[in-house]
Amino acid sequence: MFSICKSGVFYLRAENELAIYLESLGAVKWINDSPGLAISKYYRLPNSIMNDLQLYRKVVIASIQQVKLQKLADELDKKQRIKEMANLTIKHERLLAKVEIHNVKEFLAVGPQNSYVRLKKAGFTVNINIFWLFIAALKNKHVSLLTKNERKQALSVLNISLTNAGLKPVKEES
Predict the structure, then answer these.
(1) Which residues pair with 9 in a beta bridge?
(2) CA distance linking residue 31 with residue 153, whole number of Å
């Protein structure tokens, strides 16, 4: 939402440079008189802007672009949430957060085998199925689509990591 019209008064959404620019032209920040509404980023435009159609158009377009960019940034941030990955849910996101893995970037850096090892070392009861979910999530495919070869290679790497951490290796699947 880039604007609000209340009681015949037009308020335009603005942040950062646009907000400073509007204030320099005489725009006044909307004071929150409506509990529950997040309106701190809206500005009442002075008549000098409203009467100058070219300037009015310019600031409205700038506001719309700000909103679009913010929405895009929010969507990109959302994609950095572990729960947005294939096979994973908020349950997995919270579990990984307990071992200091808070987003997709950190999950990629740590890797599925080391994530599993961290969980085991921290005392969480995890089985091989969660490891398969991690592997499939990083391949962006459903866990049931992991091939036997992919599982065999991943299990081999996991067992090396478990052994290096002083933990018992996982038995190979039949």
Answers:
(1) 6
(2) 60
Helix (H) or strand (E) run with residue 10 in it: strand 9-13
Amino acid identity for residue 144 in this structure: S
pLDDT in tens for each of the 174 residues of the chain? 788 887 777 888 999 999 999 999 998 888 766 666 666 788 988 889 989 999 999 999 999 999 988 887 777 567 788 998 889 999 999 999 999 999 998 998 999 999 999 999 999 999 999 999 999 998 888 999 999 999 999 999 999 999 999 999 998 764
| Amino acid at the residue 159 | N
How many CB atoms are closer than 10 A to CB 22? 22
Task: Tell whether pTM > 0.70.
Answer: no
